[in-house]
From TrEMBL:
<dbReference type="Pfam" id="PF06080">
    <property type="entry name" value="DUF938"/>
</dbReference>
<dbReference type="InterPro" id="IPR010342">
    <property type="entry name" value="DUF938"/>
</dbReference>
<dbReference type="InterPro" id="IPR029063">
    <property type="entry name" value="SAM-dependent_MTases_sf"/>
</dbReference>
<protein>
    <submittedName>
        <fullName>DUF938 domain-containing protein</fullName>
    </submittedName>
</protein>
Amino acid sequence: MNDDRLHAPATLRNRDAILAVLCQVLPASGLVLEVASGSGEHVVHFAAALPGLTFQPSDPDPQARSSVAAWAKVEGLANLRPPLDIDAAAPDWPLAAADAVLCINMIHIAPWSAAVGLVRGAGAILPPGAPLYLYGPFRRHGAHTAPSNAAFDESLRQRDPAWGVRDLEEVAALASATGFSPPAVTTMPANNLSVVFRRN
């Protein structure tokens, strides 16, 4: 066992449901950037299942990048690049272009500036028609979709007042102002959503 490999228990529960949506959303070939790759378990799973695509993981946390690299080494996937140091909120990303951007379970465990930076950064590197895929819990029309999400939101805000479950309409307005289409929304297990914006 490589000590650098981190494990996120939720990944095993949601990765196949996410993959099913990605199979309908992602292009047949090209470069897919994952922002906030965390442990790396998602991107390794997707890269193994979708060999026609090249995946670029990223995370601002050195420990997370070490975990991504360790998982990649074990799996030996030719279509998985070494992880980049990308802070979603940073004004410039070290990647000039991508054919899709993924971000799973990040915008609620980060300040709003990270969501703003994510949409801005994706808008800068995606061509017209390309998807920005978000996954996680969202409020809809200002209300939580389940009591468990309300409790989760409260626990997040106790950890950091800048964190919290985001309002889907607010994220959609941000995306629209940055040059993205209205979202295509898929209801996912455990009161989460898949949200797909496309570059205009």
